[in-house]
Amino acid sequence: MSSADKPNYYSVEEYLQREATSLVKSEYVDGWIRAMTGASIRHNRVAGNCFLSLGSQLKGNPCTPFNSDTKLRIDRSHRKRLYYPDMQVVCESNDQLSVYQDHPVLIIEVLSPSTRAYDLHEKLDVYLSVPSLQCYIVLEQHQPIAYVMRRSNQEWIKETIQGLDATIRLPFLACSLSLKDIYEGIEFTETCVQEPDPEYECIQEGGS
Fold this sequence. Notes:
Blueprint: H1 12-21, E1 26-29, E2 32-35, H2 41-57, E3 64-67, E4 71-75, E5 80-83, E6 87-90, E7 100-101, E8 104-110, H3 116-127, E9 135-139, E10 145-152, E11 155-162, E12 167-170, E13 175-178, H4 179-182
């Protein structure tokens, strides 16, 4: 590979400077910058429904939901990441002038064909290493199905919740998310883009 073909390596500071003036969102993965694609209306509606529901329930609470305009920073010795989760809830917020959060207790991602592998593998592994995180929720677009990873002491427990009558309990926030509210206004397709169940059996202890 010639030097002209090699991708550029950036520091976190260089990435943040580029992102501050860029018209396109990008994520930072250990020195590499990955441009994000635009989301569908259905994707944004599912994410927006989560934000509205939790925002209403957490009103007056020190825990606050943030939408996909707020970055999440993962800063470990061997991992330097800055992502844009579809939604995160933070109880110990960074300074209000900061462009990222460090201590989410809840992260929600809505699956899309272009981000599916990242959300279910790369991001899952990194998100579960965040010490403050209590729950990671991954939502299908095409059917009312949620994959929920909950912290239990030093382990992560996986749960699949599905059906419009189902509810995701969030006791650490003293609230919940009903799938009926999450998927309000969504027209479902006949087939569901869904990974084989074994993909979710590999969740082990978080932390790194």
